[in-house]
Design a protein that fits this description.
There is one protein chain. This protein is mostly helical. Helix 15 runs antiparallel to helix 18. The relative contact order is 0.16.
């Protein structure tokens, strides 16, 4: 294929995937901070253990199905797969809005999340279109989209639950799925999709990625699992915790406080952009940000609103920097043909951390209150800092091996 034709195919691809990310995150964030309110108002379920189990089940659904979609994407073009799966997710989400029983809602919403998880494949797909030197910027941009989507979703979710009702929140989630489907259809119809499945299928017998996966990817995944366990330990009951501390029942305000890290991420992206020309080694800042995150988590356990808000800012800064650094490292130690597989393994461990934290959060809040989750999360970040020091060289960029394939379209990145 001629370079100019490839440029035409890729034109607008990155922007479209960023838009899809925004729809996906907005959809996910509608209820994530308000599941205790949702289950109480919709089905009369008030158990913290039930909420923790439901969020854990979401993680199980995603972590078990994403590797399957990664294998399917070796034979089916990624955007064609997403078109079908996001449409199915939207239909299931609409059906769940009419579920009369909590068991029915569980079944339909879990099937929805299993289909929806396929959208995560668009991240390694996009990385294949970009040269390695731009990965940090692209990951940072996508991370900001995630945070901004979290802001909008949390505020919109709080407003919807407070003024419209829980069924409307589920309807908004479905709208996000259908919006992603529409973007996929536009990309396919306009010829902006870069084919990869045929090359992946042809190269599959020649790849021997097992030893590298064990040696480089899995230690990174273990560290990220611990970080995500700690970060998500505080999420399911944060809105209730803030409302109890502040004495305010305004869920819009709760959603805004929940989303403070997203606003901090915007500032962090701007700062990172200014520092791009300094060629700072990847290892720099990992330990410092783990410790900064631990401090921010401890501050959120303080029964003083101002201290909690300051801790939320520190925590948001640290978490953004760590997410970017670890994902950049993942794509540096992987190869383009294995991006989807390695990312699915990475995501599996991320969701395993979320899964464990969901079970732990429900049990801890039920017995000891939400404040303890912040202290334990801070301890998790401190332990991750220790492990980062012990696993020497884990976060140093690996030099590409001779003959390592370059990303598709690396010379003409969009």
């Amino acid at each position: 294929m001629k370079p100019d034709m490839k440029d035409d195919m890729k034109r607008g691809l990155k922007e479209a995937i960023v838009a899809m990310s925004a729809f996906a995150v907005l959809s996910d964030a509608i209820l994530i901070a308000f599941y205790p309110h949702f289950f109480e108002r919709r089905y009369g379920v008030t158990s913290a253990l039930h909420v923790g189990a439901y969020i854990a089940a979401i993680s199980i659904a995603v972590m078990c199905t994403l590797p399957l979609w990664a294998r399917v994407a070796r034979r089916v073009e990624t955007m064609h797969l997403l078109l079908v799966m996001q449409g199915a997710a939207g239909v299931l989400c609409v059906l769940s809005a009419f579920a009369d029983s909590v068991a029915g809602y569980w079944v339909l919403s879990m099937l929805m999340f299993m289909c929806k998880s396929s959208y995560l494949l668009m991240y390694p797909y996009l990385m294949r279109m970009q040269p390695p030197e731009t990965h940090g910027h692209v990951i940072g941009l996508l991370s900001v989209v995630v945070y901004v989507g979290g802001i909008a979703g949390a505020v919109l979710g709080g407003f919807t639950l407070q003024h419209v009702g829980p069924a409307a929140g589920v309807g908004l989630m479905a709208a996000g799925d259908f919006a992603m489907m529409a973007v996929c259809a536009w990309l396919i119809g306009s010829g902006r999709v870069v084919p990869t499945a045929a090359a992946d299928a042809a190269d599959a017998p020649a790849r021997r990625g097992g030893p590298r996966l064990l040696r480089r990817v899995l230690p990174l995944c273990g560290l990220v699992m611990l970080m995500d366990f700690s970060a998500y330990l505080i999420r399911p009951f944060f809105a209730l915790y803030w409302e109890q501390l502040s004495g305010s029942g305004e869920q819009i305000v709760s959603g805004a406080v929940f989303a403070i890290p997203g606003a901090v991420a915007l500032v962090a992206l701007f700062v990172n952009q200014r520092a791009r020309q300094r060629n700072t080694p990847l290892r720099d800042g990992v330990l410092a940000n783990l410790l900064l995150g631990a401090a921010g988590l401890l501050m959120q356990a303080a029964p003083v609103e101002a201290v909690l808000l300051a801790g939320r800012v520190l925590y948001g800064w640290a978490l953004f920097q760590l997410i970017v650094k670890f994902e950049v490292l993942l794509f540096r130690i992987s190869t383009p043909a294995d991006y989807a597989r390695d990312f699915s393994v990475f995501n599996f461990f991320q969701n395993l951390g979320v899964l464990l934290s969901s079970f732990a959060a429900g049990a801890l809040v039920q017995r000891h209150g939400a404040a303890l989750t912040f202290a334990l999360a801070a301890g998790g970040f401190a332990l991750a800092a220790l492990l980062e020091r012990l696993w020497l060289g884990l976060d140093r960029p690996a030099a590409p091996a001779p003959g390592t394939p370059q990303p598709i379209g690396a010379t003409h990145a969009g």
